[in-house]
Design a protein that fits this description.
Elements lengths: L3 H8 L3 H9 L6 H13 L6 H7 L5 E6 L5 H16 L3 E6 L4 H13 L4 E4 L7 H7 L4 E4 L9 E5 L1 H15 L4 E5 L5 H16 L9 E3 L5 H14 L6 E4 L2 H13 L9 E6 L12 E4 L2 H18 L7 E4 L2 E3 L12
Parallel strand pairs: 1-2, 1-3, 3-4, 4-5, 5-11, 6-7, 6-8, 8-9, 9-10
Antiparallel strand pairs: 10-12
Helix pairs in contact: 1-2, 1-3, 5-12, 6-7, 8-9, 10-11
Amino acid sequence: MATIKEVAQHAGVSVATVSRVVNNKGYVSDDLRQRVQDAMRLLDYKPSAVARSLRRQESLTIGVLVPGMHQPFFATLAHVIQRTLFERNYRTLMCSSEEDGDKETEYVDMLVRQRVDGAIIAPTGQESEAIKMISAKIPVVLVDRDLPHIEVNRILANNYQGGYDAIEHLINLGHRRIAIIGGPPYSDAMQQRTRGADQAMHDAGLAFDPALVIMSDLIEFDMGFRSALHIFKNHTPIPTAIFALNDVVAVGIMHAAAEVGLRLPDDLSVIGFDDIPLAQYMIPSLTTIAQPIYEMGERAAQLLLNRLATGTATPYESIELEMKLKKRASTAPPSTSF
């Protein structure tokens, strides 16, 4: 592997000039910069990331903390963030709080000790002091879930509008007895979705039956399955439609419906939220409110990189992305016989 001295000799410049090009610091004319870059490519010169980080007092490492790597939405989001950062020569420390505020605090403390350059965090919403603390030390971007009182960059989706659109779709199909299953209830995103759903019902002159609204701290396939079974066995008549606050819960609901002999969408309509990759492959395919997961991850990474490049010179940004209703086969007008 070529050395920096060999690159300088081949380009006919000083080692200091090569260093300025590599670190993108100091003035270098366009002609000299091009000669150095050509020499680096020809000699296959790879700057030492460790040496660069020591000189610039950077770790070239970003912390990524999400509520659950086992959840398809957050697994996809983390993947997109990691891929985007990797392309910019940053490496990631991936952490999963598992919807546990204490674990979230422990992981935030660890990221500080590891001296990461910045962090992208989807908070649980239960505990914010640790995140407030780390945001005072390094650049932080909140993604998907918000902590409104902390001054940081944030990439969010319009969860209120998504909840409204989900219920409006069911109402337009003719549904009036609608259930909601999901959570966690302390999540700002989930609160916004339920507020949007409530408003859609109110605008249609309807109201949710409190007995048909089930919120839980656990967002698992099994939670949707058990909650739906509880509704099917304990409420007559059963709802004609269920709004699942995420697609993982929706999959559990669909399995519960099959368990008790309900046909989708003839006997029951189900709409989810997120549009995880599995949604379109369910039988029937799942109608859902699609979050722009890939755009969210890419823009979160870019916001953090911009902050690292400019320091405090730029104001904080709060970007809200739009949702999209994906109509598939799991929703239809209610059966007149049900």
